[in-house]
Amino acid sequence: MSLTAIGAAIAAFTGIGAGIGISLATAKATDAVARQPEADGKIMRLLILGCALAEATAIYGFVVAIMIILFS
Amino acid sequence: MLSISLINILFTVINILILLFFVKKFLFGKIDEIIKKRQEEVDEATVAADKATAEARAIKKEYEKKIELADEEKEQILSDIKKLGYEEYERIVMDARKTGDKIVKEARQNARAEAEKERELHADELKDMVIDAAAKIAATKHSSEDDSLLYDKFINEARANNG
Amino acid sequence: MKEMLNELLMADKTLIHVPFGNGFFDIYKSVVVSWIVLAILIVMIVALTSNLKVHNISKRQAAVESAVLWIRGVVGELLGEEAIGYAPYIVTVLIFIAFSNMIGLIGLVPPTMDLNVTLALSLMSIVLVELAGIIKKGPKKWLKSFTEPMAVITFMNVLELFIRPLSLCMRLFGNILGATVIMELIKHVVPIILPAALSIYFDIFDGCIQAYVFCFLTSLYIKEAVE
Question: pTM value?
Answer without folding.
Answer: 0.72
